[in-house]
Amino acid sequence: MNNKAVIARQVTVRGRVQGVYFRASTQQQARRLGVAGWVRNLPDGRVEAWLEGADDAVEALMTWMREGPEQAEVTGLCVCEVAPRSLNDFEVDA
């Protein structure tokens, strides 16, 4: 991460977001943008993610998540402001 202020957001994504490479694509985008955190499937069909990094990078990733990969059909994002945890990488949780 760079010297900009670090922010963190917990994001829940609704829609057709499981089984469409949403987690792997989110990880790829996060690493490209320099965002740390994790992404995982939830039992109810949503995807949950923790995003941490520079404000502009986190915002760019959330913008991408509103569309997701080509096969996804995102119907909404729920975003909560949270305290950063000093994460260093972006992981896909099982």
TrEMBL record:
<feature type="active site">
    <location>
        <position position="23"/>
    </location>
</feature>
<dbReference type="GO" id="GO:0003998">
    <property type="term" value="F:acylphosphatase activity"/>
</dbReference>
<dbReference type="InterPro" id="IPR001792">
    <property type="entry name" value="Acylphosphatase-like_dom"/>
</dbReference>
<protein>
    <recommendedName>
        <fullName>Acylphosphatase</fullName>
        <ecNumber>3.6.1.7</ecNumber>
    </recommendedName>
</protein>
<feature type="active site">
    <location>
        <position position="41"/>
    </location>
</feature>
<dbReference type="Pfam" id="PF00708">
    <property type="entry name" value="Acylphosphatase"/>
</dbReference>
<dbReference type="InterPro" id="IPR036046">
    <property type="entry name" value="Acylphosphatase-like_dom_sf"/>
</dbReference>
<dbReference type="InterPro" id="IPR020456">
    <property type="entry name" value="Acylphosphatase"/>
</dbReference>
<dbReference type="InterPro" id="IPR017968">
    <property type="entry name" value="Acylphosphatase_CS"/>
</dbReference>
<keyword id="KW-0378">Hydrolase</keyword>
<comment type="similarity">
    <text>Belongs to the acylphosphatase family.</text>
</comment>
<feature type="domain" description="Acylphosphatase-like">
    <location>
        <begin position="8"/>
        <end position="94"/>
    </location>
</feature>
